[in-house]
Write a structure and sequence with these properties.
Layout lengths: L22 E7 L3 E7 L5 E8 L5 H15 L5 E8 L2 E2 L6 E3 L6 E3 L1 H9 L3 E5 H12 L7 E7 L3 E7 L2 E2 L36 H13 L6 H6 L9 H9 L3 H25 L3 E5 L7 H14 L10 E4 L6 H11 L1 H4 L4
Parallel strand pairs: 1-4, 4-8, 9-12, 12-13
Antiparallel strand pairs: 1-2, 2-3, 5-6, 6-7, 9-10, 10-11
Helix pairs in contact: 1-2, 3-9, 4-6, 4-7, 6-7, 7-8
Protein backbone atom coordinates (compact mmCIF):
# COMPACT_ATOMS: atom_id res chain seq x y z
CA UNK A 1 0.00 0.00 0.00
CA UNK A 2 1.38 3.48 -0.81
CA UNK A 3 1.79 6.01 1.91
CA UNK A 4 -1.50 7.92 2.27
CA UNK A 5 -1.49 11.41 0.88
CA UNK A 6 -0.79 13.95 3.58
CA UNK A 7 -2.88 17.05 3.90
CA UNK A 8 -1.24 20.01 2.25
CA UNK A 9 0.08 22.51 4.82
CA UNK A 10 -2.35 25.34 5.53
CA UNK A 11 -1.72 28.48 3.56
CA UNK A 12 -3.51 31.77 3.45
CA UNK A 13 -4.94 32.65 0.05
CA UNK A 14 -2.92 35.27 -1.74
CA UNK A 15 -4.09 38.41 -3.47
CA UNK A 16 -5.16 41.85 -2.30
CA UNK A 17 -8.88 41.22 -2.65
CA UNK A 18 -8.77 38.27 -0.25
CA UNK A 19 -7.45 40.69 2.37
CA UNK A 20 -10.20 43.22 1.83
CA UNK A 21 -11.66 44.38 5.12
CA UNK A 22 -15.18 45.42 6.00
CA UNK A 23 -18.34 43.69 7.13
CA UNK A 24 -20.62 41.72 4.83
CA UNK A 25 -24.05 40.18 5.20
CA UNK A 26 -24.41 36.56 4.18
CA UNK A 27 -27.81 34.97 3.59
CA UNK A 28 -28.45 31.25 3.20
CA UNK A 29 -31.83 30.40 1.64
CA UNK A 30 -33.03 26.92 2.46
CA UNK A 31 -36.24 25.02 1.98
CA UNK A 32 -37.42 25.67 5.55
CA UNK A 33 -35.50 28.72 6.77
CA UNK A 34 -33.64 31.80 5.61
CA UNK A 35 -30.56 32.38 7.80
CA UNK A 36 -28.55 35.60 7.73
CA UNK A 37 -25.55 37.02 9.53
CA UNK A 38 -23.07 39.89 9.67
CA UNK A 39 -19.64 38.40 8.93
CA UNK A 40 -16.20 39.99 9.32
CA UNK A 41 -13.12 39.40 7.15
CA UNK A 42 -11.97 36.51 9.37
CA UNK A 43 -15.21 34.58 8.93
CA UNK A 44 -16.58 35.45 12.37
CA UNK A 45 -20.33 36.01 12.70
CA UNK A 46 -21.07 39.17 14.66
CA UNK A 47 -24.86 39.01 14.56
CA UNK A 48 -27.46 36.54 13.28
CA UNK A 49 -31.10 36.62 12.28
CA UNK A 50 -33.41 34.15 10.60
CA UNK A 51 -36.92 33.68 9.29
CA UNK A 52 -39.01 30.74 8.17
CA UNK A 53 -38.91 30.35 4.38
CA UNK A 54 -42.28 31.82 3.29
CA UNK A 55 -43.38 29.09 0.93
CA UNK A 56 -41.73 28.85 -2.45
CA UNK A 57 -42.88 32.04 -4.18
CA UNK A 58 -39.93 34.22 -5.30
CA UNK A 59 -41.52 37.55 -4.31
CA UNK A 60 -42.15 36.38 -0.76
CA UNK A 61 -38.59 35.10 -0.40
CA UNK A 62 -37.27 38.43 -1.68
CA UNK A 63 -39.39 40.27 0.90
CA UNK A 64 -37.87 38.21 3.72
CA UNK A 65 -34.34 38.87 2.43
CA UNK A 66 -34.97 42.62 2.42
CA UNK A 67 -36.28 42.42 5.99
CA UNK A 68 -33.18 40.55 7.14
CA UNK A 69 -30.75 42.93 5.44
CA UNK A 70 -32.54 45.95 6.91
CA UNK A 71 -32.46 44.39 10.38
CA UNK A 72 -28.78 43.41 10.28
CA UNK A 73 -27.55 46.65 8.73
CA UNK A 74 -29.34 48.80 11.33
CA UNK A 75 -26.32 48.75 13.67
CA UNK A 76 -23.47 47.71 11.35
CA UNK A 77 -21.87 49.40 8.39
CA UNK A 78 -22.17 46.82 5.61
CA UNK A 79 -19.87 46.74 2.60
CA UNK A 80 -21.59 43.97 0.61
CA UNK A 81 -24.35 41.35 0.58
CA UNK A 82 -24.00 37.73 -0.51
CA UNK A 83 -26.87 35.30 -1.14
CA UNK A 84 -26.47 31.54 -1.16
CA UNK A 85 -29.49 29.73 -2.60
CA UNK A 86 -30.28 26.14 -3.45
CA UNK A 87 -30.38 25.92 -7.22
CA UNK A 88 -28.45 26.21 -10.46
CA UNK A 89 -27.12 29.68 -11.26
CA UNK A 90 -26.06 31.07 -14.58
CA UNK A 91 -22.36 31.69 -15.06
CA UNK A 92 -22.69 35.40 -14.32
CA UNK A 93 -24.37 34.73 -10.99
CA UNK A 94 -27.49 36.69 -11.84
CA UNK A 95 -30.24 34.17 -12.52
CA UNK A 96 -31.46 31.07 -10.71
CA UNK A 97 -31.96 28.73 -13.65
CA UNK A 98 -33.66 25.99 -11.66
CA UNK A 99 -34.18 25.03 -8.03
CA UNK A 100 -35.44 21.53 -7.21
CA UNK A 101 -36.85 22.62 -3.85
CA UNK A 102 -38.06 26.19 -4.55
CA UNK A 103 -40.30 27.56 -7.33
CA UNK A 104 -37.51 29.37 -9.17
CA UNK A 105 -37.25 28.91 -12.93
CA UNK A 106 -35.02 31.41 -14.78
CA UNK A 107 -35.54 33.82 -11.90
CA UNK A 108 -33.45 37.08 -12.13
CA UNK A 109 -32.92 37.05 -8.37
CA UNK A 110 -29.80 39.21 -8.23
CA UNK A 111 -31.27 42.08 -10.23
CA UNK A 112 -34.50 41.94 -8.24
CA UNK A 113 -32.64 42.13 -4.95
CA UNK A 114 -30.28 44.88 -6.09
CA UNK A 115 -33.28 46.95 -7.04
CA UNK A 116 -34.99 46.33 -3.71
CA UNK A 117 -31.88 46.76 -1.54
CA UNK A 118 -30.24 49.50 -3.60
CA UNK A 119 -26.84 47.91 -3.19
CA UNK A 120 -24.67 45.35 -5.00
CA UNK A 121 -25.54 41.72 -4.35
CA UNK A 122 -23.59 38.55 -5.07
CA UNK A 123 -25.70 35.48 -5.84
CA UNK A 124 -24.28 31.97 -5.66
CA UNK A 125 -25.29 28.38 -5.14
CA UNK A 126 -25.53 27.49 -1.44
CA UNK A 127 -23.09 24.58 -1.78
CA UNK A 128 -20.56 26.87 -3.51
CA UNK A 129 -20.89 29.26 -0.58
CA UNK A 130 -20.35 26.48 1.96
CA UNK A 131 -17.33 25.12 0.10
CA UNK A 132 -15.75 28.57 -0.09
CA UNK A 133 -16.22 29.01 3.67
CA UNK A 134 -14.63 25.64 4.43
CA UNK A 135 -11.69 26.43 2.15
CA UNK A 136 -11.16 29.87 3.61
CA UNK A 137 -11.84 29.21 7.28
CA UNK A 138 -12.70 25.56 7.93
CA UNK A 139 -11.76 21.92 7.38
CA UNK A 140 -10.47 22.46 3.84
CA UNK A 141 -8.38 25.53 4.60
CA UNK A 142 -5.55 25.85 2.12
CA UNK A 143 -6.30 22.59 0.25
CA UNK A 144 -5.29 23.14 -3.41
CA UNK A 145 -7.96 20.78 -4.73
CA UNK A 146 -11.03 20.64 -2.51
CA UNK A 147 -14.39 18.97 -3.15
CA UNK A 148 -17.18 19.80 -0.71
CA UNK A 149 -20.33 17.70 -0.29
CA UNK A 150 -23.38 18.88 1.67
CA UNK A 151 -25.80 16.25 2.91
CA UNK A 152 -29.25 17.50 3.82
CA UNK A 153 -32.62 17.17 2.13
CA UNK A 154 -30.60 16.28 -0.95
CA UNK A 155 -26.89 16.39 -1.83
CA UNK A 156 -25.14 19.57 -2.87
CA UNK A 157 -21.57 19.90 -4.01
CA UNK A 158 -18.88 22.35 -4.99
CA UNK A 159 -15.19 22.54 -5.88
CA UNK A 160 -12.46 25.00 -4.97
CA UNK A 161 -9.52 24.44 -7.29
CA UNK A 162 -6.37 26.50 -6.99
CA UNK A 163 -8.11 29.11 -4.85
CA UNK A 164 -11.09 29.61 -7.19
CA UNK A 165 -14.56 28.17 -7.26
CA UNK A 166 -14.89 25.87 -10.26
CA UNK A 167 -18.39 26.54 -11.55
CA UNK A 168 -18.19 24.82 -14.95
CA UNK A 169 -18.83 26.12 -18.45
CA UNK A 170 -22.41 27.22 -17.73
CA UNK A 171 -22.20 27.84 -13.99
CA UNK A 172 -23.89 24.62 -12.85
CA UNK A 173 -20.91 22.44 -11.88
CA UNK A 174 -21.04 20.60 -8.58
CA UNK A 175 -24.53 19.09 -8.82
CA UNK A 176 -23.05 15.80 -7.67
CA UNK A 177 -26.27 14.69 -5.99
CA UNK A 178 -27.83 14.26 -9.41
CA UNK A 179 -25.32 11.82 -10.82
CA UNK A 180 -27.32 8.69 -11.62
CA UNK A 181 -25.94 5.98 -9.40
CA UNK A 182 -28.79 3.46 -9.74
CA UNK A 183 -30.42 3.44 -13.20
CA UNK A 184 -34.17 3.02 -12.87
CA UNK A 185 -34.00 3.64 -9.13
CA UNK A 186 -35.96 6.00 -6.89
CA UNK A 187 -37.55 8.99 -8.59
CA UNK A 188 -35.76 12.26 -7.84
CA UNK A 189 -37.24 15.75 -7.63
CA UNK A 190 -34.99 16.75 -10.53
CA UNK A 191 -37.03 14.45 -12.80
CA UNK A 192 -34.56 11.58 -13.18
CA UNK A 193 -34.41 8.21 -11.47
CA UNK A 194 -31.61 6.79 -9.35
CA UNK A 195 -29.82 10.01 -8.41
CA UNK A 196 -27.15 9.75 -5.70
CA UNK A 197 -29.13 11.97 -3.34
CA UNK A 198 -31.92 9.40 -3.33
CA UNK A 199 -29.55 7.00 -1.56
CA UNK A 200 -27.12 9.09 0.48
CA UNK A 201 -29.07 12.04 1.91
CA UNK A 202 -31.17 12.87 4.94
CA UNK A 203 -34.31 12.27 2.89
CA UNK A 204 -33.02 8.85 1.85
CA UNK A 205 -32.30 7.91 5.46
CA UNK A 206 -35.80 8.93 6.55
CA UNK A 207 -37.45 7.10 3.64
CA UNK A 208 -35.66 3.84 4.39
CA UNK A 209 -36.56 4.08 8.08
CA UNK A 210 -40.23 4.75 7.28
CA UNK A 211 -40.39 1.76 4.95
CA UNK A 212 -38.99 -0.45 7.69
CA UNK A 213 -41.46 0.93 10.22
CA UNK A 214 -44.44 0.54 7.88
CA UNK A 215 -43.57 -3.13 7.55
CA UNK A 216 -43.90 -3.25 11.36
CA UNK A 217 -40.57 -5.02 11.55
CA UNK A 218 -39.55 -6.12 15.05
CA UNK A 219 -36.26 -4.27 14.56
CA UNK A 220 -38.11 -0.97 13.92
CA UNK A 221 -39.89 -0.76 17.27
CA UNK A 222 -37.59 1.92 18.69
CA UNK A 223 -38.20 4.03 15.59
CA UNK A 224 -41.96 3.65 15.93
CA UNK A 225 -41.84 4.40 19.65
CA UNK A 226 -39.76 7.55 19.06
CA UNK A 227 -42.60 9.11 17.02
CA UNK A 228 -45.47 7.74 19.12
CA UNK A 229 -46.57 5.49 16.30
CA UNK A 230 -46.76 8.24 13.66
CA UNK A 231 -44.56 6.59 11.05
CA UNK A 232 -44.79 9.58 8.70
CA UNK A 233 -42.96 11.62 11.36
CA UNK A 234 -39.79 9.51 11.04
CA UNK A 235 -37.09 11.67 9.45
CA UNK A 236 -33.38 11.41 8.94
CA UNK A 237 -32.90 13.56 12.04
CA UNK A 238 -34.97 11.11 14.15
CA UNK A 239 -32.89 8.18 12.90
CA UNK A 240 -29.65 10.05 13.59
CA UNK A 241 -30.71 10.89 17.14
CA UNK A 242 -31.61 7.27 17.86
CA UNK A 243 -28.36 6.04 16.31
CA UNK A 244 -26.35 8.36 18.52
CA UNK A 245 -28.28 7.01 21.50
CA UNK A 246 -27.23 3.47 20.57
CA UNK A 247 -30.21 2.03 18.64
CA UNK A 248 -28.82 -0.78 16.50
CA UNK A 249 -31.36 -0.53 13.70
CA UNK A 250 -30.78 3.21 13.29
CA UNK A 251 -27.05 2.58 13.18
CA UNK A 252 -27.55 -0.03 10.49
CA UNK A 253 -29.62 2.43 8.45
CA UNK A 254 -26.91 5.07 8.78
CA UNK A 255 -24.28 2.54 7.75
CA UNK A 256 -26.26 1.78 4.58
CA UNK A 257 -26.42 5.49 3.73
CA UNK A 258 -22.71 5.82 4.54
CA UNK A 259 -21.88 3.05 2.08
CA UNK A 260 -23.79 4.84 -0.67
CA UNK A 261 -21.96 8.02 0.28
CA UNK A 262 -18.57 6.33 0.00
CA UNK A 263 -19.45 4.80 -3.37
CA UNK A 264 -20.40 8.20 -4.78
CA UNK A 265 -17.22 9.77 -3.41
CA UNK A 266 -15.15 7.06 -5.10
CA UNK A 267 -16.82 7.94 -8.40
CA UNK A 268 -15.99 11.62 -7.86
CA UNK A 269 -12.39 10.77 -6.98
CA UNK A 270 -12.03 8.88 -10.26
CA UNK A 271 -13.18 11.96 -12.16
CA UNK A 272 -11.76 14.85 -10.11
CA UNK A 273 -8.84 13.49 -8.03
CA UNK A 274 -9.18 15.91 -5.10
CA UNK A 275 -6.82 16.08 -2.13
CA UNK A 276 -9.67 16.37 0.36
CA UNK A 277 -13.40 15.78 0.50
CA UNK A 278 -15.14 17.92 3.10
CA UNK A 279 -18.56 16.52 4.00
CA UNK A 280 -21.09 18.78 5.72
CA UNK A 281 -24.81 19.33 6.08
CA UNK A 282 -27.35 18.24 8.68
CA UNK A 283 -26.80 14.51 8.12
CA UNK A 284 -23.25 14.93 9.39
CA UNK A 285 -24.65 15.27 12.91
CA UNK A 286 -24.20 11.50 12.84
CA UNK A 287 -20.42 12.03 12.78
CA UNK A 288 -18.35 8.86 12.50
CA UNK A 289 -21.49 6.69 12.46
CA UNK A 290 -21.87 7.99 8.91
CA UNK A 291 -18.31 8.84 7.90
CA UNK A 292 -16.62 5.65 9.05
CA UNK A 293 -18.68 3.39 6.72
CA UNK A 294 -18.31 6.03 4.01
CA UNK A 295 -14.50 5.85 4.28
CA UNK A 296 -14.58 2.06 4.15
CA UNK A 297 -16.81 2.03 1.07
CA UNK A 298 -14.66 4.73 -0.54
CA UNK A 299 -11.49 2.67 -0.04
CA UNK A 300 -13.24 -0.46 -1.34
CA UNK A 301 -14.52 1.20 -4.53
CA UNK A 302 -11.71 3.63 -5.35
CA UNK A 303 -10.35 3.20 -8.86
CA UNK A 304 -6.72 2.07 -8.68
CA UNK A 305 -7.02 1.33 -4.95
CA UNK A 306 -3.74 0.19 -3.47
CA UNK A 307 -1.71 1.88 -6.20
CA UNK A 308 -2.60 5.55 -5.85
CA UNK A 309 -2.78 8.24 -3.17
CA UNK A 310 -6.28 8.63 -1.75
CA UNK A 311 -8.15 11.77 -0.78
CA UNK A 312 -8.97 12.45 2.85
CA UNK A 313 -12.64 12.52 3.87
CA UNK A 314 -13.22 15.10 6.61
CA UNK A 315 -16.27 16.42 8.40
CA UNK A 316 -17.00 20.07 7.72
CA UNK A 317 -15.89 22.41 10.52
CA UNK A 318 -18.39 25.26 10.17
CA UNK A 319 -21.65 23.33 10.41
CA UNK A 320 -24.91 24.94 9.29
CA UNK A 321 -23.31 28.39 9.32
CA UNK A 322 -20.96 27.64 6.42
CA UNK A 323 -23.40 28.83 3.74
CA UNK A 324 -23.96 32.29 5.13
CA UNK A 325 -20.26 32.72 6.04
CA UNK A 326 -19.24 31.74 2.52
CA UNK A 327 -21.86 33.92 0.83
CA UNK A 328 -20.74 36.93 2.87
CA UNK A 329 -17.06 36.33 2.16
CA UNK A 330 -17.64 35.75 -1.55
CA UNK A 331 -19.48 39.05 -1.78
CA UNK A 332 -16.35 40.68 -0.38
CA UNK A 333 -13.86 38.91 -2.65
CA UNK A 334 -16.01 37.98 -5.63
CA UNK A 335 -13.52 38.77 -8.39
CA UNK A 336 -11.03 36.28 -6.96
CA UNK A 337 -13.79 33.68 -6.74
CA UNK A 338 -14.43 33.88 -10.45
CA UNK A 339 -17.32 36.31 -11.00
CA UNK A 340 -16.78 38.78 -13.81
CA UNK A 341 -18.68 41.64 -12.25
Amino acid sequence: MPTPRHHFPPRRPAGPRLRRRGLAIGIDIGGTKVAAGVVDAEGQILREARRATPGSQPREVERVIVELVDELSSDHRISSVGIGAAGWMDLEGGTVLFSPHLAWRNEPLRDNLERLLRRRVLLTNDADAAAWAEWRFGAGRGEPRLVCITLGTGIGGAMVLGGRLERGRYGVAGEFGHQIIMPGGHRCECGNRGCWEQYASGNALGREARELARANSPVAQELIKAVDGDVDAITGAVVTELARAGDGTSRDLLEDVGEWLGLGLANLAAALDPGTFVVGGGLCDAGELLLDPARRAFARNLTGRGFRPAARIERAALGPLAGLIGAADLSRVNRVAGWAR
